[in-house]
Design brief:
216 residues
């Protein structure tokens, strides 16, 4: 079992080594503890790899790319009511879609990493996804105004830019306020009604959030 874990670790390390070289010209640096690459501007642009045990658990992984954008100003406001422990607050994303959310793929953008032979073709495939799908999306949607459009264009319907609805309602409200969205009051009404279906603490925290946003 120890040897199996070592082999899996080696596969992961080699994949990151190759992909790091490919992403360096785009100024995306590896944050190994999070399994993601980040470029820090006014926003943090993140290209993330999610690793799951493959069907042969002792051998390799299924690898799935996703992406995220973090705007520190939004997250600072959110964490005044989020209840997250401080040690987790610095890594929370403002939006977090999967690649498959942005462009449906026949393979669901899930790839096997079972042997060393997989590393070269997989690193190349992940780089192409980064260059053709992830990077254009990240660069086009890194502002508060862009995220407001993504989260709040249709507040009554489901949204693929954050997988947990409650988190979307909080972030959507914050960016609507900061972006001076003309429909801010409508957004608040919709999200208030939606949060009423969850645990009472969500609605209580949402009320606290609205008070924080009032003078902004």
């Amino acid at each position: 079992e120890i040897n199996s874990r070592m082999k899996k670790s080696e596969l992961k390390n080699e994949l990151f080594s190759q992909l790091t070289t490919l992403l360096e010209p785009y100024e995306f640096a590896l944050v190994r503890r999070m399994d993601w690459y980040v470029r820090k501007e006014e926003s943090k642009l993140i290209y993330r790899l999610d690793f799951y045990d493959s069907y042969r658990k002792d051998v390799g992984y299924t690898v799935s790319p996703s992406l995220a954008i973090r705007i520190d100003r939004v997250e600072h406001i959110y964490h005044q009511v989020s209840g997250f422990e401080p040690k987790y607050q610095k890594d929370t994303p403002t939006i977090w879609p999967t690649i498959n959310d942005l462009r449906k793929g026949d393979d669901g953008y899930e790839y096997l990493l079972d042997t060393h032979k997989d590393i070269n073709p997989l690193s190349e495939k992940l780089f192409v996804i980064f260059r053709e799908i992830a990077l254009p999306f990240l660069e086009e949607n890194s502002s508060i105004e862009a995220i407001d459009r993504l989260l709040n264009a249709d507040p009554q319907n489901e949204n693929n830019f954050f997988c947990i609805p409650q988190h979307r309602y909080f972030r959507g409200t914050i960016v609507a306020k900061l972006a001076k969205n003309d429909r801010y009051d409508q957004v608040v009404r919709v999200y208030w009604d939606e949060l009423a279906h969850f645990l009472p603490e969500y609605l209580n925290n949402y009320g606290r959030l609205l008070k924080i946003l009032e003078p902004m």
